[in-house]
Write a structure and sequence with these properties.
Blueprint (H helix, E strand, L loop, with lengths): L2 E6 L10 E6 L7 E10 L2 H7 L22 E9 L11 E5 L14 E5 L3 E3 L6 H6 L1 H11 L24 E5 L4 H12 L3 E6 L4 H6 L4 E4 L5 H4 L3 E6 L13 E9 L7 H7 L2 E2 L8 H13 L6 E6 L3 H10 L5 E5 L1
Parallel strand pairs: 8-9, 8-11, 9-10, 11-12, 12-13, 14-15
Antiparallel strand pairs: 1-2, 3-4, 3-6, 3-15, 4-5, 5-7
Helix pairs in contact: 3-4
């Protein structure tokens, strides 16, 4: 069996469980592309998997057989095309969020990945593999929350379907604005005509103004919920149990979109007439093609925090754990 280099987990734990080793080449099936990977974007689900999803209730934790190759986001070159695939040929440059959210099957931290052609889009010309690999999960998350959901899968944690809200002329606050999802959400909201207030730590102020933020709040100096009001939308990329603090900043009929689980103030939201809605990002090659056009035009830019060779995935995860990331961390192959 042909071998490739990959990062694999044989147990859950800290960054030290990421092992750079030989692994079997993925098998190309009908409807799939086999891609030689040039760069890999790293995302929070990568470390949730590495840690064994310890933030989830035990009954929700997926049971995945070891060894596992983590990761979802890749940019590379098509090595082979499976039966029935149209629109892609060997030699095409492509990027993708691979098979998300089917846990443990994405397997992006590797020299090759095989996945459904429908997960892929053509890499924008004029953008290198590093920037393309940084875009898919963060870009699709921002897109599916703010622009277009693009699927019909019901979120089991809420009764209603997630609906993006109109942004033109609206006041939008993005919390965690310098991170992967945040800095792309700031740019998408600006593209759609919103007035954007960015919340991050002070060192990101110049960066966030440079990508279009109209106002900036340094959360280390003042609590955003103490200084803003009459917002139409808050996109809280941090989410979690503290996201309810933003309810008092939002006008009646406005919306709070937490990206991570943990919202627990449904009663207060109902009293204030505020929609609270979330969604789980899903692979979507068609949306990625659209997002790619904005990248190609320079309308949206992906910021790179740092890059590491694939063999140094441990160091990349350590960098992620240190926080205060500006943009995205990328592995190079």
């Amino acid at each position: 069996m042909e071998q490739m280099k990959a990062i694999r987990l044989h147990a859950y734990g800290g960054p030290e469980v990421l092992r750079y080793e030989d692994a079997p080449m993925p098998e190309l099936k009908d409807g799939q592309l086999l891609v030689r990977v040039h760069a890999i974007g790293i995302n929070p689900p990568d470390w949730y998997l590495r840690e064994g999803y310890k933030m989830l209730p035990p009954e929700w934790r997926p049971n995945i057989p070891f060894p596992i190759i983590p990761g979802t986001d890749v940019s590379g070159v098509v090595a082979a095309v499976g039966k029935g695939v149209q629109g892609f040929s060997a030699g095409d440059e492509v990027f993708s969020m691979v098979r998300f959210p089917s846990v443990g099957e994405s397997a992006a931290y590797a020299e090759f990945v095989a996945a459904p052609a429908s997960d892929f889009a053509h890499k924008p010309a004029g953008i290198d593999h590093i920037h393309a690999a940084a875009a898919p999960m963060a870009g699709l998350t921002a897109w599916q929350f703010l622009i277009e959901l693009g699927h019909d899968v019901q979120n089991p944690l809420q009764a209603h379907k997630h609906h993006p809200v109109p942004l033109n002329g609206k006041k939008v606050l993005v919390n965690g604005a310098a991170g992967g999802v945040g800095h792309l959400a700031v740019q998408l909201a600006k593209w759609k005509g919103a007035h954007v207030i960015a919340v991050a730590s002070g060192k990101h102020e110049a960066f966030l103004h440079s990508i279009g933020a109209d106002e900036f709040i340094d959360y280390t100096k003042q609590a955003p919920e103490a200084v803003v009001q009459d917002l139409d939308l808050v996109l809280d990329t941090l989410g979690g149990p503290h996201t309810g603090r933003f309810l008092k900043t939002i006008k009646r009929g406005g919306a709070l979109f937490p990206v991570f689980l943990g919202f627990s103030d449904a009663e207060e939201a109902a009293q204030r007439g505020i929609i609270v809605s979330s969604t789980q990002v899903r692979s979507n090659g068609t949306q990625l093609e659209e997002f790619g056009r904005l990248l190609a035009a320079g309308t949206i830019n992906v910021a790179i925090d740092s890059t590491f060779p694939l063999a140094d995935a441990q160091k990349a995860h350590e960098r992620a754990a240190n926080g205060h990331i500006q943009g995205k961390i990328v592995l190079t192959v």
